[in-house]
Amino acid sequence: MVSEAVNTLRDEQVRRHFLAVLDSDQPAEKKYEELIAFFERYDNLLNEISVQSAATPQDASGAAQEVSRAAEKTGLWNPQGIRTRVEDCLRRALQRLRVCQHGDGGWGYYVEQSVTWGTAQVLLTLLKARRVLELDPPVDPLVVQARDWLKGHSSTWELHDIPSGAERSSYEACLAVRSLCEAGDASFHAVSRTLEWIVTNQNDDGGWDARIRRAEDSWPRRVYSEVGATRMAIQALVVAANPALRQVVSKSARWLESVQNEDGSWNSGSCHPGQTKPMGQPSISKTCDALQGIASAARAGIRLPKHDDILRRAVDWIMAREQLRRTQDGGQLGWGYDDPEMPDLDSTCLAMETLVSIPEASMPAVTTNAIWLMEAQYSEPGSVEDGKWSYGDTFRITAALLDYYAKIRDNALFTTAG
Amino acid sequence: MSAGAPAITTAPGLRRKVYIATGLSQEDLQTQFGAVLGRYAQAESTRDAEFIIFDLDHPPKPFAPFVQDRRGVSGEAIRPEALVPCLIRCTGATTPATQWIRDEIQSAFNSLRLYQSDDELLRELQWIESMIPYVKRNVTREQQDLALAIALRFAG
């Protein structure tokens, strides 16, 4: 019995949790009670799972189902409640996307100022929504308008023919390409030209620059490899099933591997002339970017030899940065991430979006991220503002929650006892 | 010792696990140990078991691993490796072969009791069960990880 409790307390996630509890400003007695309550919950749950388990060995899905049923019976887990809550949150978020569309058919972050990033995010979100939800009314007209806006404004995001002195974002161009390819516009001329640009402008080290200037400008080019830009390029190439995919993506995945920090993270900055590793501090957002880039490459069949080890170290690093959000009376609200580079809702969104794309991610843990995001959704029934995230990117959070919903829909852990 | 067995502390519905060390086939085992298996789950190995019953009427081959290794343990019939009680059932007359095993067992433990009926055996199991407040749960590592994450993050 003693050794069981000691082993439990040595578990990394338990250690992190109770260090956070000890570090909180709750009264000492409350902290002590929290520790006891956890062991009681855990013990009851293990007993209940034992009761549920049949004598015969089960497959992984049956085993997870037993946990779900046991946890539901002990009152800890409410899979139907979680599903209903996500569905309601997504319904409101999608309604918000409908009503905040601009007059020109695009989307953006300020009134009537449509931008490529926002419109491409919305297009990806709508395509995901169409795949995982039954939508009434359908979003097809919005999909068409988002595609038209991106195609009609391609001169603002394409990486060819950049005006002298101007600067473009490779993030934006890659996102536009990815969203249009997913919408079935891979043959659109700006898409194919941008894909060609991505292939021919890969840096010698395998990465891509984030900020792009025209070749004639006196500014060093192709020496500022950056993790996020590299992830965006990989994802665009993978979605487009570009013929140069294997060679180019393989090189970029190897670059990502080569610049992973010893602790599993990636840095926030970019490389510089004579500086072969991205500068800056270890960053949650860049670590998520790198993970998504490597995971996308692997899904396209380009798997690094040390894939599992790279992912494990990165996921451990990310999860070690997760923080418990509490209600004013000290109850648990959810779990989120703080990154100096991004507001916490956006970094939580990025972490969740990344973790759900990895098969090994702990779904109870990801669920608490989803809960934290849903808690932060703005609620004002009947208002056009209802369903937005005031302090986060509504388009992207909606997409991340759609990914989460798609993942739990057929997951045995979310099967209800009934 | 076994009279007036106290209330059992096991979680409701949870069948605790017994390993039966026997030379019987699974089919004969179900017949011969029906009373025990009606109440307890059959463990597939001593490692999973919470109790071991040694069938002296039909000893397993080899028998020694179940009763002879008693390093660091004296007095009681406890199997050291599994650290669980080992009860010896002997309902019939011993044959020369089983008598030899019985003598070996006798020399291995300071005090030895043979259970000569299922009633006697069940009463003793119930008494031990009530004394041992833990259960070797039938939970896989994956289930344990999921349970830990849920218990840690969801207070109900």
C-alpha Rg of chain B (nearest Å): 17 Å
Write down the domain tally of chain B.
1
* Percentage of residues in DSSP E strands of chain A: 5-15%
Q: Which architecture name of chain B does CATH use? A: 3-Layer(aba) Sandwich
The backbone outline of chain A, from C-alpha atoms, is globular
Which CATH architecture of the domain at 153-320 in chain A would you pick? Answer: Alpha/alpha barrel
Would you tell me the overall average pLDDT of chain B? Answer: 74
Roughly how much helix do the residues of chain B carry, as a percent range?
25-40%
> Uncertain segments of chain A of ≥5 residues (pLDDT<50)?
none
Quickly count the helices of chain A: 17
Major β-sheet profile of chain A: 2 strands, antiparallel
Structural class of chain B: alpha/beta
- Count of DSSP helices of chain B? 6
The share of residues in helices of chain A is: 55-70%
How many beta-strand elements of chain A? Answer: 8
Total count of strands of chain B = 6
Main sheet of chain A: which strands, in order across?
1-3
Mean pLDDT across the residues of chain A is 90
N- to C-terminal separation of chain A?
34 Å
Which fold does the CATH topology of chain B refer to? Rossmann fold
Query: How do the SSEs of chain B run, as a string of H and E?
Result: EHHEEHEEHEHH
